[in-house]
Amino acid sequence: MANSHEKRIRTAFTRQAPTFEEERLNTAFTSSVPWLLDHLAPEADDVILDVAGGTGIVSRSLAPRVARVVSIDSTPAMIDEGIRCAAVEGLANLDFVRGTVEALPFASAAFTLVFARFALHHLTDPRRVVVEMARVCRPGGRVAVMDLAASTDPGIAKQQNQMERLRDPSHVRMLTRGVVPQWLHQHGLVVDRVTEQEIDRPVHPWLEQAGTEKSAAARIHDAFVAELDGGAETGMCPHRGTDGASLWFRQLWEITVAHKG
Ligand SMILES: C[S@@+](CC[C@H](N)C(=O)[O-])C[C@H]1O[C@@H](n2cnc3c(N)ncnc32)[C@H](O)[C@@H]1O
C-alpha cells in the first residue's frame, strides 16, 4: 500500500510524463544534459545506474557511449514514456526498472557509475538514498548528484521550498547548497568536483509543465510580482525577461561528483 507521499509522486509524474520532455515547457531539463555529461565523463565500459531516472533523458544520452545503463523509477507512466523513446532511438543496452530508490534492488558494487538528477528534492529521506547509491557503486567507481540547491539562509530556503511545493506538491525539500558533498564525504566517498550554476527560467512554462493547480499558480505569480514591486522576498529572484514583460525566476543547480576509494 503506497503512503501519501508515494501517492503524491505517482500523481505528479503520471500527469507530467506525456509532456516531460516537451521543449516548450521543459527546455531546462533537456538543454542541461551536456553539462551533466561533462561531469559524469562516461567511459565505454561503464555500467551505469540512473536513480529516479524518470523518462531516462540522461540515460538515453549515455547509452550509446557506454556498456549498459539501468534507470530505476517508481512512476509507471514515466517508465513507459522512457521505454517508448528508447525503442524509437534503437537503444538496446538501456533497461528501465520499476522500484523505489530507498532500497535499491541491486547487489552491492554492481555499477561503475551511479547518479541521480533532480531526484533528491522529491525524497522524504534523501540521505538514505545517497547511502544506497554508495553501496551499489563499485570501489573505484563514481557517484554523482545533480539537484536544485537551497540558499544557506534558512529563512530564504524556507520560502524557496514553499514556492516549489506550491508549484508541485511532490516537492519535499531542496537540500542546502553544500550538503550533498558533505554527505558523500561522510559516507566514505572522495569528493572530486562540486559545480554550481544559476539558471533563469520562465515562470509560466514551469507552472504549466507541472500542471500546477490554478489557484496555486496565481499565488506564485502574485508573490513574484509583489516581490518585483518591493514586497516580501520569495527566494526565487523573480525578474522580467529580455522582452520586458514575461516573468522569470532563478534556481541554483549543484552537481557533485565523488568516487569510491
Ligand atoms: C523531476 S523527475 C526527474 C527525472 C530524471 N531524473 C531527470 O532528471 O530527467 C523525478 C523522478 O523521481 C521519481 N521518484 C520520486 N520519488 C521516487 C522514489 N522514492 N523512488 C523512485 N523514483 C522516485 C519520479 O517518479 C520522477 O520520475
UniProtKB/TrEMBL annotation:
Q: Which Pfam families match?
A: Methyltransf_11
**Transmembrane domains' residue ranges:** none
Listed GO biological process terms: methylation
Q: What is the lineage of its organism?
A: Bacteria, Bacillati, Actinomycetota, Actinomycetes, Mycobacteriales
The record's section on PANTHER family has: METHYLTRANSFERASE (PTHR43591)
The record's keywords, sorted A to Z, are:
Methyltransferase, Transferase
Q: Does the keyword Methyltransferase apply?
A: yes
Q: Which InterPro entries match?
A: Methyltransf_11, SAM-dependent_MTases_sf
State the source organism's domain of life.
Answer: Bacteria
Methyltransferase type domain: which residues? 49-144
Give GO MF terms, alphabetically. Answer: methyltransferase activity
Q: What is this protein called?
A: Methyltransferase domain-containing protein
Q: Which Gene3D superfamilies match?
A: Vaccinia Virus protein VP39 (3.40.50.150)
